[in-house]
Amino acid sequence: MTDLTDSTLLRERCFVAGAWIDADDGGRSPVTNPATGATITHVPRCGAEETARAIAAAEAAFPGWRAETAGRRAALLRRWFELILENREDLALLMTLEQGKPLAEARGEIDYAASYVEWFAEEAKRLYGDVIPSPLPDRRIVVVKEPVGVCAAITPWNFPAAMITRKAAPALAAGCTMIVKPAEQTPLSALALAALAERAGIPPGVFSVVTGSARQIGAVLTASTAVRKLTFTGSTEVGRLLIGQCAGTVKRLSMELGGNAPFIVFDDADLDAAVAGALASKYRNAGQTCVCSNRFLVQDGIYDRFAARLSEAVAAMTVGNGLEDGVQQGPLIDAAALAKVEDLVADATRSGATVAVGGRRHALGGTWFEPTVLTGVTASMRVAVEEIFGPVAPLIRFTDEAEAVRLANDSDYGLAAYLFTRDHARVWRVGEALEYGMVGINTGLISTAVAPFGGVKQSGFGREGSRYGIEDYVEIKYLCMGGL
Ligand code: ADP
What we know:
Blueprint: E1 14-16, E2 19-21, E3 28-32, E4 39-44, H1 48-67, H2 70-86, H3 88-99, H4 103-123, E5 130-132, E6 140-147, E7 150-154, H5 162-174, E8 177-181, H6 187-200, E9 207-209, H7 214-223, E10 227-233, H8 236-247, E11 252-256, E12 261-265, H9 271-283, E13 293-299, H10 300-315, H11 335-350, E14 354-357, E15 372-377, H12 382-385, E16 392-398, H13 401-409, E17 416-420, H14 424-433, E18 438-441, E19 460-461, E20 474-481
Helix pairs in contact: 1-7, 2-4, 2-5, 2-6, 3-4, 3-6, 4-5, 9-10
This protein binds adenosine-5'-diphosphate (ADP).
Adenosine-5'-diphosphate (ADP) is lined by residues 154-156, 181, 183-184, 214-215, 218, 234-235, 238, 241.
Pfam family, one: Aldedh
GO biological process, one term: gamma-aminobutyric acid catabolic process
Family: Belongs to the aldehyde dehydrogenase family.
């Protein structure tokens, strides 16, 4: 790891209560580079005891942190934001090493992660309340917003930095304290962010990162009465489990779960834009994002042309180690991810789909899968029903708008959807008919810190980013002032 400009950003300990600690029992887990299979380093395998200490520290730090002025919290977050950008190259390198995404994408994620910290540093100062006209002459009704309290965040490996900052920044801005449990695969990005938070002067206990056993750490975070809120990004399956675990203590929850994004291309679409949008939304991060297009619904009249153009573009993609120049697609995160993608493609071809391009493990070996386009897919095939989380585009044919909307909404998920058309009336009709939290219209890229990110149905609830994002971390209190 001598390639880091600042080698102190490679942390091999957890950050709890403002101190860098090992697991009580000395247990450590390897962090693996998915491109080479090599062990990068080890991080502590913490469990219940260390998590309890992180909670106690967050509880102890909360009164002081909430009592700071919004301006002071904003200034510390702003400093954190600056430090993230100043260390962009090192953070991106760490991310590519542990996660596999191309370095250019890792740099993009660092900018994106930092943008949440900047945004919420600013929003900290705008957490306004209300004065409501009173029905009685001798009363005044005042609404104030207060921080929820100690928050826990459980985050995934696909965006190792941004999924942390989009939770931690609004929490800290609102005056909450937070404990993060990052994914086992990508703890180094989380620990580097903690090192920079410490450097920025964020007080001890306000932001802790505990690595280790998901089950043990999750059990303690969810059972604790001191933890008032859990925010989770990950699979619907684990989200469901965590919602259940939080029932006992009636916690506030934000859940950003799985998706099955439809990407609808109408006959009147701009073909170039649709192909560009498809590439951006499908193959980014090797298809491992919850807003990646999962099903392409393509109208009869444009289906063959879209399939041909997309296949041509996909066949030209450069696959390799994310550290190499020009690589557009890195490896999948692990062997289980590879097996799932392979299985879904095999199931589709057995059921009658055709491989237009790709379709196999890549010649590079490891966990690489070829960028793939499947034609002749039907809505009932597993590849169109399950979240693929890999570089596979299944193309389904439809005839009219009503059928497209019906197919698009025929899912338990409701995170992101995309549609391509030049008809403005259709934009509104279909945009409103789609049961999704986010709709990209003539674009395949929708994520930005200034807009509300989140889903409906079994894709979860709560919104991250935008002015709505901080609301997930505040309680509304009503003060009724009588006898005036
Ligand atoms: P993904 O499919 O992205 O790996 P997961 O839902 O499995 O999604 O993981 C997302 C996060 O949830 C990770 O930090 C993981 O460690 C954590 N996690 C997985 N299982 C549990 C559990 N039983 N309790 C608490 N956290 C869990």
